[in-house]
TrEMBL record:
Feature: compositional bias, Basic and acidic residues: 101-112
Name of the protein in question: Uncharacterized protein
Species per Swiss-Prot/TrEMBL record: Trinickia symbiotica
Source domain of life: Bacteria
Positions of region (Disordered): 100-123, 238-257
Length: 257
């Protein structure tokens, strides 16, 4: 699926090259008229040349990618803008690229190797444990591979919301990262927390986050899923903290498989 953004007061169509936890990122020309950062503006999102939805987008960051093209990152202004966007995406999920056949494997992880999925897990010394992280895994089972792809993309986009919810729980947890792997209609998710000696707290945090995600997906999109916690949490080396891009159905010329 290829999408583009047009601001109402700027006569330029910007192709979205990345959709991840930072927002919608588009390439723009050096001589383009730039929207003012931080201010919500009326915009429309297009798919295959047709309007996908209309909403208010906030330009958040402007960077030069690899010393070449400029990239503008935008985010929905309000909760209703976010919901309108994702409901429109779900309604057009049939435009996703071909997803793997049953039994094939698709990787929705970032473009870096993830220790969350390595087995066996590395040993961590007492001296290192203060800066280590804890990983807990879960699997979401959906009805189709297309719904699994949508669910995986939606999770990544809302990472900040999940991290905020984890901090606000009765037993607060610091969610550092999450990685996703999709096989057919199943999305495996690794939740990476700041190191905790309380294994029960990590288990409860993962269970509560999974329940919240499953409930919200059903309420907002009618996407039904069931989940299960896969194993006991594992200790990991801490994530590097760098910004990252995720292989996505939104990147021109790229498939998630």
């Amino acid at each position: 699926m290829r999408i583009a953004v047009e601001y109402a007061d700027i006569a330029q169509r910007m192709t979205v090259v990345r959709l991840d936890r930072h927002g919608l990122t588009a390439n723009i020309a050096d001589d383009a008229t730039l929207p003012q950062l931080g201010l919500p503006r009326a915009a429309r999102v297009l798919c295959a040349g047709e309007t996908l939805c209309e909403l208010r987008l906030v330009p958040r960051a402007l960077v030069r990618a690899g010393g070449r093209s400029l990239e503008l990152t935008m985010q929905p202004s309000r909760i209703d803008d976010d919901l309108s966007f994702w409901q429109a995406v779900y309604a057009r999920r049939h435009l996703y690229p071909d997803v793997p056949a049953r039994g094939d494997h698709a990787d929705d992880r970032p473009n870096r190797s993830s220790e969350a999925w390595h087995s066996p897990q590395p040993e961590i010394s007492t001296a290192e444990s203060a800066s280590a992280a804890t990983c807990s895994r879960a699997a979401f089972m959906l009805s189709t591979a297309n719904e699994a792809l949508f669910f995986s993309e939606w999770l990544e986009f809302h990472f900040a919301e999940l991290a905020a919810h984890a901090r606000a729980m009765a037993s607060p947890s610091n969610l550092l990262d999450l990685d996703r792997r999709r096989t057919d209609a199943t999305v495996n998710v690794a939740f990476i927390y700041r190191y905790s000696c309380n294994s029960n707290a990590v288990h409860r945090a993962t269970d509560e986050l999974c329940a919240r995600m499953a409930q919200e997906a059903e309420q907002c999109f009618g996407v039904c899923s069931r989940y299960e916690l896969l194993d006991e949490q594992k200790d990991l080396a801490p994530p590097d903290g760098r910004l990252r891009s995720v292989p996505s159905a939104w990147q021109p010329g790229r498939h998630s498989n």
